[in-house]
Amino acid sequence: MERKTFDAILTSVGAVLTLFLLVAGVLGLWAYSFTNTNVHNQLAEQQIVFPSQAAFAAAKPGTEITPGMLPYLQKYAGQPLTTGAQAEAYADHFIAVHLQEIGGGLTYAQLSAKAMAQPKGSAAYTADEAVVQTVFQGTTLRGLLLEAYAFWKMGQIALWAAIACFVAAAVMLVLTILGFVHLRRVPAEARI
Fold it and tell me: What confidence tens digit (pLDDT) does each residue in 153-177 have?
């Protein structure tokens, strides 16, 4: 095989790979933008706001803000919940803590079974059912926030993948240009 033909094939493959990486990078940026915008808009509609800095200053066990929440939530004090990182922090370090307190460490299913075991209409049934409803609502909100976090995280991964694709495309572009330069210098009679 002629060296010039071999070099032309490799250089052409490099050019195609460069285009592929550019398209992959653009798609990664689109995925990042779409995911971030969607998560932001969905979370903003809920109008959840982190407790104020004053609430964090008064953190005590058994209150709205416990000392264990401070490292995770204090940096967001008073801010509206609009990002995936905020959603994870709120779900795992605010809602989950309160669900544990309200349910006494029991899950929704366990609390529901406990309430169903009470005679219908009794004071115990009514009290247990109120706890079940509160835990159900809290568990649902927590799940939705963690779902938003998961999509936000996928968007972050898409951003890093896009950056990697653009860097690889730049490297391939340089190599392809060098391949074309080399292709002009190879004598027509050279063989592999």
Answer: 999 999 999 999 999 999 999 999 9
CA distances to 13, 15, 176 from 5, rounded to whole Å, are 12, 15, 15
Contact indicator for 125, 118 with CB cutoff of 8 Å: yes
Q: Residue 35 is which amino acid? A: T
Taking the C-alpha atoms of residue 128 and residue 117, their distance in angstroms, rounded to an integer, is 10
Minimal CA–CA distance to 108: which of 129, 75, 132? 132
Q: Which two tokens stand for residue 159?
A: 């951003």
Q: With contact defined as beta carbons under 8 Å apart, do 65 and 73 qualify?
A: yes
Give the helix ranges, DSSP H, for 47-83: 53-57, 70-73
Instruction: Confirm if 3 and 192 have CB atoms less than 8 A apart.
Output: yes
Could you read off the pLDDT of 44-85 as tens digits, one per residue? Answer: 999 999 999 999 998 898 889 999 999 999 999 999 999 999
